[in-house]
Amino acid sequence: MNSAAADTLFVATRKGLMEVRRAPTPSGWRIGRCHFIAEPVTLALLDPRSGARYAALAHGHFGVKLHRSDDGGDTWRELPAPAHPPEDGGEGPSVSMVWSLEHGGADRPDRLWAGTLPGGLFRSDDGGESWALVESLWNVPERARWFGGGYDEPGLHTLLVDPRDSDTLTAAVSCGGIWRSRDAGASWQSVGEGLRADYVPPDQAHDLPIQDPHRLAVCAARPDVVWCQHHNGVFRSEDAGVTWRTLDAIRPSGFGFAVVAHPTDPDTAWFVPAVKDEERVPADRRLVVARTRDGGASFEVLDRGLPSPSFDIVYRHALAADGSGERLAMGSTTGNLFVSEDAGDSWQLVSAHLPPIHQVAFG
Prior knowledge:
- With about 375 residues, this protein is mainly β.
- About 0% of the residues lie in helices and about 40% in strands.
- Strand 1 and strand 2 (about 15-20) form a beta hairpin.
- The protein is globular.
């Protein structure tokens, strides 16, 4: 685990993938190269094992595309995108977006995982040159109860690879709950005791396969500590996501999409509160970050340098922390990009004129 501060930020937007670097500017950062100009980039991955860069694009009518660069972004090569095999003599479901892209662990140098809309998980063992659907998860009987949240179809947006054991995986599906595998995806268990859903009849509120975890974040130094931003609150697990407790102290709202965990301090995490369902705007029309430093017993509301009134929403992958846990980045649906150098105490505006931001990631 790299505890050093990162000096490069990748920003995936509706109109390209931006490189943002440390620079002598008022914000301390400057936007540099833009890759895939005017194309919708949903995710980027910098593979720490090989240095390869990956970019996933969603072209709507023209489908999903995946690209890889082995020379620091100077050139990009298109790879096959994850695709479902034929079903019952016809075509399988169409993949409309790659919603999660993760490397497979230090001891699996060529393994990648991709989560998609609809809620599929794909594995590559050759650096993205080919992909196979993880049929064991696709075929769980509970999938018949999955349904879409913000999208019409359920989507797999989070995959956690345990740094202690690359065969131990945790996947989160909106709306399909949390799933654990200890055998590299050969079999799966539905977990999440303690989560609750207020959008179903009360007698189904604790059913595991219909939960809507918006995002999971793990403490890299203590992988059993996992945080969840759920549709109906924020939660913390100390047994790698098997059971959860509600963090009722969060304010001003328990709804949101993004959460990031401190890489070394298991008691620290950040959330971005909002108003759910019909409105989808910041709570109290103020863009703030909620931080806990005591395992969720209490929360601070951080807003220095953030706009008010505001209509910014921060997507699932658009909040990130670097290896030091002091440098944070946050991008919004209205194209605002912010960086904090002091663990969220204050924020500097890098740009207010970017396209809607899907993801930020330190490299």
